[in-house]
Amino acid sequence: MNHEHENFDNHDRENRTDNPSDSIEKRTADNRFSHAGGQGGYQNDPYQEPPVYHYDPSRGFTLEPPRKKKSGRGKAALLLAGCMAFSALFGFGGGVAAMKLMGQNQTVLYRPAENTVSDSGAAAQGTALSTSEIAALAANSVVEITTESTRSDFWLQQYVQEGAGSGVIFSSDGYIVTNNHVISGANKITVRLKNGESYDAKLIGTDAKTDVAVVKIEAENLQPAVLGSSADLQVGEFALAIGNPLGSLGGTVTDGIISALNRDIIIDGETMNLLQTNAAVNPGNSGGGLFNERGELIGIINAKSSGSNVEGLGFAIPIDTVKTVFEQLVTNGYVSGRAALGVSVIEISDAQTAMQHRVQRYGVYVVAVTPGEAAERAGIEAGDCIASIDGTVVSSLSDLKAELSNHSVGDTIKVGVIRGNKMADFDVTLTEQKPAE
Predict the structure, then answer these.
(1) Quick check: 285 and 315 in contact, CB under 8 A?
(2) What is the pTM of this model?
(3) Is 407 one of the catalytic residues?
């Protein structure tokens, strides 16, 4: 059985499906949210809050009654569409050097707007284009992505699942940005260009925290997207989305506006700061581009609201975030400087999963410890239920990630665990999070 390495994704969200572009959802009080594409199936059970352990230094942990899930701007639960049951459990690693020096010439990884000469006079002058002009300018920079993954069902029988999403070309020699949830766990990644040519893609690096991934195809003279800036965006600005909705409608163009900035949205336990748009996005749009009125890429689509009574709520990763992560993934194969415990974990929040893993309480469980890393050196073991960080109760993956995000590499934290029927505290010195070898 494969398990996640340091990304803390839930282990039980995969349902077998014949539609590769369907999404997995988690129902909130009024709406449902899902990723806008990728692999997977539906999971429509209402979210059940796990039991809460109250931590008191003098008494240890005591069980409190289940609490109701609070809703709020930062607590809208979004789930990855696409095969997130084992999604980041495979821990793809390895990277390639970002810059190759040929004498004094440095490889250009993407086209900044100021270095791009457009065939359109209006774009060259920085003025607004028509919708059709933007589509013509940007369409060749957006690709279709399909994946194949080996999965296991409840009875541990294996099957091959297909997925679909979108991507955006960042360099003329084949570097492509997509979403982490589109390619997570994939054994095979295929990229199809606008002209119909298909290529096998190599995974360069992936970052679950920002939901960004980079793949590479062996091709030349591609048309990279013109990169804009998300720092100066204003609510009400024009926005145009291009992607591969339903995994079969590549090159689809939808328009709208920037509906909101700096939306703090929780996606699979990760709090992301996203752009909101009312441009129509659907399963399969994930990893596609969001462009401004000058044809510049301003975001990468990664999520939408899928509530039956909700319309026009799509979300995109700001391009300024994407550029930073892209450079790190191409250079290192991962984003450096992230603090890690050195464990693989799962969140158990329903009776079926608890029965499958033979545990009697809900919570965040250690599946495996990385040899030689922080948790193992401190004495944490597989099977431990992580109950607190520095005295703050941990009852979900979101809690664990939030606490770790407040610390840096080299910090020492006190991790409280439940082992059997006993409580124990361990002092753990955090190391740098790196992908599995």
Answers:
(1) no
(2) 0.68
(3) no
State the pLDDT at residue 121.
46
- Of 383, 399, 384, 392, nearest to 413 by C-alpha is 392
Task: Based on the residue annotation, tell me whether 286 is a catalytic residue of this protein.
Answer: yes
One of 286, 349, 388, 398 is an active-site residue; which one? Answer: 286
Task: Give the confidence band of 437 by pLDDT, cuts at 50, 70, 90.
Answer: low
* Per-residue exposure over 319-330, b if at least 16 CB sit within 10 Å of its own CB, e if not: bbbbbebbbbbb
Q: Find the catalytic residue in 12, 211, 268, 384.
A: 211
DSSP per-residue codes, 215-239: EE-S--S--PPEE--STT--TT-EE
For residue range 369-404, list pLDDT tens digits in order.
Answer: 988 888 999 999 999 999 999 999 998 888 888 888
Whether 230 is catalytic is no
By the 8 A CB rule, do 296 and 226 touch? yes
DSSP-derived letter for residue 75 is G
For the record, the structure tokens of 113 come out as 């707007």
Q: What is the pLDDT of residue 18?
A: 40
